[in-house]
Design brief:
Oligomer: single chain
Radius of gyration: 17 Å
Structural class: mainly alpha
Number of strands: 0
Shape: elongated
Number of helices: 8
Largest sheet: none
Strand content: under 5%
Distance between the termini: 53 Å
C-alpha cells in the first residue's frame, strides 16, 4: 500500500466519530459508539500499516531522539504519513475523552463543538481551551 494512500485515508476513517461528537452529541448512539475505547483503532490501523514495514527506521528515529535523525525520518513520505496517522488517532483519543468529560461536567454542546473543531486542527490549543472550560465548570459547580 502506498504512503499516499495511507495518508489520504487516515483522516476520513476518523471523520464519522468526529461528526457524531460535533453534530450529534446528545444522540444515545453517539455515546454508545464512543463508549468503546477502540474508537481510535481505525486511524491506528493505518499507522501500523506503515510502522511495521518501516519499523527499523522508526525505531532508529525514536530510540534516542536526535533532531537531525527525526527530521530525516519525517521528511520521507512514509515518515510523514506515519506521524499523520499517529496525530489523527491521538487527537481522536483526546476528543473522545473531552466528549465524556464535557458530559460529566455539563459543558453545553455549543461550547464543546467548537472546541472539538479546534482540536481537529490544532489539538494542543483545543485541549488547553477545553481544560480551561472544564476547570471553570468544576469551580462553578462547587
Amino acid at each position: 500500500m502506498s504512503d499516499l494512500t495511507v495518508f489520504a485515508w487516515t483522516f476520513p476513517v476518523a471523520v464519522p466519530f468526529w461528526a457524531l461528537m460535533i453534530f450529534l452529541p446528545g444522540w444515545r448512539g453517539t455515546r454508545r459508539i464512543l463508549a468503546s475505547p477502540w474508537v481510535p483503532l481505525l486511524p491506528l490501523a493505518w499507522y501500523f500499516v506503515l510502522a511495521i514495514p518501516h519499523f527499523g527506521e522508526l525505531w532508529h528515529a525514536m530510540r534516542r531522539p536526535d533532531l537531525g535523525v527525526l527530521q530525516g525520518f519525517l521528511s520521507t513520505p512514509y515518515g510523514a504519513a506515519l506521524v499523520w496517522a499517529h496525530l489523527i488517532a491521538f487527537d481522536l483519543f483526546i476528543a473522545r475523552w473531552m466528549f465524556f468529560e464535557a458530559r460529566t461536567h455539563r459543558v453545553p454542546w455549543w461550547v464543546l463543538s467548537p472546541l472539538l473543531v479546534l482540536t481537529i486542527f490544532l489539538s494542543p490549543f483545543g485541549l488547553v481551551a477545553f481544560l480551561a472550560v472544564r476547570s471553570a465548570r468544576i469551580r462553578s459547580a462547587a
